[in-house]
Design goal:
Number of strands: 12
CATH topology: TIM Barrel
Oligomer: single chain
CATH architecture: Alpha-Beta Barrel
Strand order of the largest sheet: 1-4-5-6-7-10-11-12
Low-confidence stretches: none
Strand content: 25-35%
Distance between the termini: 16 Å
CATH class: Alpha Beta
Number of helices: 10
Number of domains: 1
C-alpha cells in the first residue's frame, strides 16, 4: 500500500520579538504578519495537518533562548511531528532543539558550510531527525540550471541543486525540504520540473515547497512533481483554503492521505 502523502503547514517565525510571530513573504521578501506560532500550530494540528515546519527566519545565537522557549510552548500544544530550523550549527544545537520538543531539525546554510554536521547529526540522533533544506533558484549557472542559496536566500553558493541533493542523501539526511525561491509566496504553483528532478533522483522523501496558491497545486506536487509531502503557508495562514479541502481533493484523485 502506498504511503500517505503529507500536508505540512510552514510557520516562518520572526523571533526578534519576545513571543515570536509567524510571518510570510514573497520570494523571501515583502514580509507580513500571520499569527502567533503556537496558536497557529495548534490550530493546524486540530485541522488535520500531518506535520508542522517551524523556521526561525531571523536566527542567531543571541535568540537561542527565545527559540527554545517558543518551541517548548509550541510542542506543548501540538501532537503531530514538529520540524524546526534556523540557526542550527552544531550537534549541540540539534540536541537542544530536540530536547525542547522538536521531532526533527532542518539545516541549510550550516549543512553547506559544514557538511559533516549532516553526517554527525544523522549518526548521533538518527537520520529520521535530519532534514536537509535546499533553497534553490533558477540561475542557469549550474549543470541542472538550479543553484543552492544560503543565508535565507541572500547568498548564491555556486552549488548545483541536484548534485547537493544527492550529496546530502549520502551524508545521511533522512529527508529533503526543497524550496523554489522563484515560486516562494507567488501562489503560481510549485516548480514542478525542479521538484520532479530531485524527487526522481534521490531515494529519500522530498517535501515540495514554494508557490502554493490552491489545492490543485498540491495535487500537482504529487502527481507531476512526484513529491512525498507538500509544504504550504499563505493559503492556510490567511484562511484561503483549509487542510480538509486539500485532503478532500487529494482523496478524490486517489492520492493516499491521512484523515
Amino acid at each position: 500500500m502506498a504511503l500517505a502523502k503529507r500536508i505540512i503547514p510552514c510557520l516562518d517565525c520572526d523571533l526578534s520579538v519576545p513571543e515570536g510571530r509567524v510571518v510570510k513573504g514573497v520570494r523571501f521578501e515583502e514580509i507580513r504578519y500571520a499569527g502567533v506560532p503556537w496558536e497557529l500550530a495548534s490550530k493546524y494540528g486540530r485541522e488535520g495537518a500531518d506535520e508542522i515546519v517551524f523556521l526561525d527566519i531571523t536566527a542567531s545565537h543571541e535568540r537561542r533562548e527565545t527559540m527554545v522557549a517558543v518551541i517548548e510552548k509550541t510542542a506543548e500544544k501540538v501532537f503531530i511531528p514538529l520540524t524546526v530550523g534556523g540557526g542550527i550549527k552544531s550537534p549541540g544545537d540539534i540536541q537542544r532543539i530536540l530536547r525542547a520538543g522538536a521531532d526533527k531539525i532542518t539545516v541549510n546554510t550550516a549543512a553547506i558550510k559544514n557538511p559533516k554536521l549532516v553526517c554527525e547529526g544523522s549518526k548521533k540522533f538518527g537520520d529520521q531527525c535530519i532534514v536537509a533544506a535546499i533553497d534553490s533558484k533558477r540561475t542557469g549557472k549550474t549543470k541542472s540550471g538550479h543553484e543552492c542559496y544560503i543565508y535565507g536566500g541572500r547568498e548564491p553558493t555556486g552549488l548545483d541543486t541536484l548534485e547537493w541533493a544527492l550529496r546530502v542523501q549520502e551524508l545521511g539526511a533522512g529527508e529533503i525540504m526543497l524550496t523554489s525561491m522563484d515560486r516562494d509566496g507567488t501562489k503560481e504553483g510549485f516548480d514542478l520540473e525542479l521538484t520532479k528532478l530531485i524527487s526522481e533522483s534521490v531515494s529519500i522523501p522530498v517535501i515540495a515547497s514554494g508557490g502554493v496558491g490552491n489545492p490543485q497545486h498540491i495535487l500537482e506536487a504529487f502527481t507531476k512533481g512526484k513529491a512525498d509531502a507538500a509544504l504550504a503557508a499563505s493559503i492556510f495562514h490567511y484562511g484561503e483554503y483549509s487542510i480538509k479541502e486539500v485532503k478532500d481533493l487529494l482523496a478524490k484523485n486517489n492520492i493516499p492521505v491521512r484523515n
